[in-house]
């Protein structure tokens, strides 16, 4: 699956996206735990305030299943005017 990072999440990871592999029947929470471990506290703080899209649909339940080939977008709060 692909995790795409925007704004502060991109700054915290140093990349626009990464491909990850999970076995079994992973959930959004599993994906977030994995990328949080990979990128440390800086991304962890961003994830705590972020919204997520799974294949373009807002994620309300972090226990939602993630299928092979899915895209998860990490959308931190945006500032501006």
Automatic annotation (TrEMBL):
Domain of life: Bacteria
Organism listed in the record: Lentzea tibetensis
InterPro entries membership: Beta-grasp_dom_sf, Mopterin_synth/thiamin_S_b, ThiS/MoaD-like
Protein name: MoaD/ThiS family protein
């Amino acid at each position: 699956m692909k995790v795409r990072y925007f704004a502060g999440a991109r700054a915290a990871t140093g990349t626009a996206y990464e491909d990850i592999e999970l076995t079994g029947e992973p959930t959004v929470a599993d994906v977030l735990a994995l990328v949080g471990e990979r990128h440390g506290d800086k991304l962890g703080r961003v994830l705590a305030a972020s919204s997520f899209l799974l294949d373009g649909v807002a994620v309300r339940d972090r226990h939602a299943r993630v299928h092979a080939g899915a895209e998860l977008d990490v959308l931190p709060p945006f500032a501006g005017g």
